Amino acid sequence: MSRVNELPNRERESSAMPDAFQSPVILRAEGITKAYPGTLALNNVSFSVHRGKVNALVGENGAGKSTLMKILAGVEQPGEGTIRMNDQEISLSSPVDAIRNGIGIIYQELDLCPNMSVVDNIFLARELTRSGTINSAEQRSRTVELLARLEHDIDPDDIVGDLRVGEQQIVAIAKALAQDVRILIMDEPTSSLSGSEVEVLFRVMDDLRRHDISIVYISHRLDEILAIGDHISVLRDGRNVADEQVANIDLTWIVETMIGKEQANLFVRSHQHTIGKPLLRVRDICLPRVGGGYLVDHVSFEVHEGEILGLFGLTGAGRSELLECLSGACPHATGTVDLSGVVLDSNQISDRIDAGIFLVPEDRQRDGLVAALSVKNNMVLSSLRSYLDRLGISLIPRKERSATEAMIKKLSVKVSDSRQLISSLSGGNQQKAIIAKGLLTNPKVLLLDEPTRGIDVGAKSEIFNITEQLAAQGYGVILVSSELKEVLGMADRILVMAKGKITNEFTRHEASEEALMTATGTQRI
Question: What ranges do the domains of the chain cover?
């Protein structure tokens, strides 16, 4: 059963709903071209935003979606082309210009201040004042209203950095809703949300649409496009390749238009791997919860050489926390971790990396990358000692460069030069760089936490193939994914978690979508 069946369905009666192409165009980008050193990001792209509609924009990582959205948000300026609002040419030379013209944006990589409260983030640089001073009571009241609209009871005084990723995403959406916008750009707004949170967001989007607010919606979860979209535009390699009404297309059309090949070939196993002897033995892992109980509750399992072990569960099941325990990120965790017959006594990240366990984290921007560094410097961060000279004082640049360039080739990271800033790469290529960072530590077990979050179907297929190759080379892989089809397609064996415990185990041949969802304690409709 497809994820789209879990999402709220909107009625699409042609007699009642206006044609998306016939609805007025509130914003039109015409002939947009944008070049970076060595890259033509956008090549004569035109894009229309229809009034009061959900205008979906899809394409592979690197297709130019984010660049186009940054131009519409005033963050970047085009080399060529014009932007017209209500048939009047406008200049968007800064984000202030975009906001002045009623254009707001929710970025995929959240632009929140982790050391500030929820309410301070929502009204940052747009503070409500009274008699020349900040009206804190009004800001707090508005924040409560916004969060209630999003059906969340997050405390406005909570520090954003203490919230889980999904809650931070809700705060970012609330921040955008607090602005008086006529066009709201949503770049992967559901990438960290649970199914129920997605339903809430879609209800909010329907409400915005009824109030004549236009939405530009970017998502790699293509079934969401079918559930909520009115109009779809497809970019490929920086060019327009299609514009269509969502009512006239299906999932196969989107995938094949995006990447130019059939969907059925994306997740077909291409590497055979033999599952060997037990490699990692985990016994009674516990992570106490503040206030009592456990986030991870007496979990035990094994991972074999060459095995891809899937962990599936709903939000809050304890999957990410379990991987953090194994990686040494939770020093208060208890239990036994045995790797290749050696019990690991230390609960420190560096010691676990030295032992052969590496975590590719869920939030790559916060926990996996240093945005101000190059691709090369990011890749070698966890294995710097391997590139020191004999005295252990200085790094050997030639050795660093050789190792990283080999990884770039091995994982097909699309980068013009290893010295390029990692923040300039697409999400899929950033994820490959983090995997490369892990492989340079010579691990035995790789922990992949939502490795395909926020990347397109083509990049997902590449990550799938990389994971298969690693298993074929004898690595043990533990994979966490919220996407049922990914777990079913990639894992040799699947453990289902709920409330911090393992509730069931399935072999690849036993597993099904219904069986996995039932094991979480949730019945699918």
Answer: 24-265, 277-356+445-525, 364-442
User: In this structure, which CATH number among 3.40.50.2000, 2.60.200.30, 3.40.50.300, 1.10.10.10 belongs to the domain 24-265?
Assistant: 3.40.50.300
Of the candidates 49, 46, 47, 51, the one whose C-alpha atom is nearest the C-alpha of residue 18 is 51
Q: Which two tokens stand for residue 192?
A: 């960290």
Task: Read off φ and ψ for residue 42, nearest 5 degrees.
Answer: -135, 135
- All residues at 6 or more sequence positions from 415 whose CB lies less than 8 Å from its CB, including other chains: 375, 408, 425, 429
- Give the containing element (helix H, strand E) for 407: helix 397-411
Give how far Cα 2 sits from Cα of 133, 136, 180, Å. Answer: 52, 45, 36
Question: Higher confidence at residue 344 or residue 196?
Answer: 344
**Mean pLDDT across the chain, nearest whole number?**
88
* Integer Cα distance of 52 and 176 in angstroms: 17
Residue 240 confidence (pLDDT): 92
- Tell me 117's DSSP state: B
Q: Do residues 353 and 329 make contact, with C-beta atoms less than 8 angstroms apart?
A: no
State how far the alpha carbon of 482 is from the alpha carbons of 334, 339, 451, in Å. Answer: 26, 27, 10
Looking at residue 77, its pLDDT comes to 94
Distance in angstroms (rounded) separating the CA atoms of residues 187 and 184: 10
Residue 27 has phi, psi (to 5 degrees) of -140, 135
Domain 277-356+445-525, CATH number (from 3.40.50.300, 3.30.1330.60, 3.55.40.20, 3.10.20.600): 3.40.50.300
Q: What is the pLDDT of residues 2-43, one digit of tens each?
A: 344 444 444 433 333 444 456 799 999 999 999 987 678 899
**What is the reported pLDDT for 1?**
36
Whole-structure pTM value: 0.64
- Which of 413, 409, 327 lies closest to 367 in space, CA to CA? 327
CB 484 within 8 A of CB 3: yes
Beta strands in 316-356 (DSSP E): 334-339, 342-343
Least confident of 11-25, 134-148, 169-183, 310-324: 11-25
Residue 180 reports pLDDT greater than 90: no
pLDDT at 525 over 70: no
Distant-in-sequence, close-in-space partners of 162: CB < 8 Å, separation ≥ 6 = none
DSSP symbol at 9: P
Whether 222 has a pLDDT exceeding 70, the answer reads yes
Q: List the strands of the sheet with 103-106, edge to edge.
A: 103-106, 183-187, 214-218, 54-58, 231-236, 239-245
CB neighbours of 176 closer than 8 A, spacing ≥ 6? 104, 105, 106, 184, 186
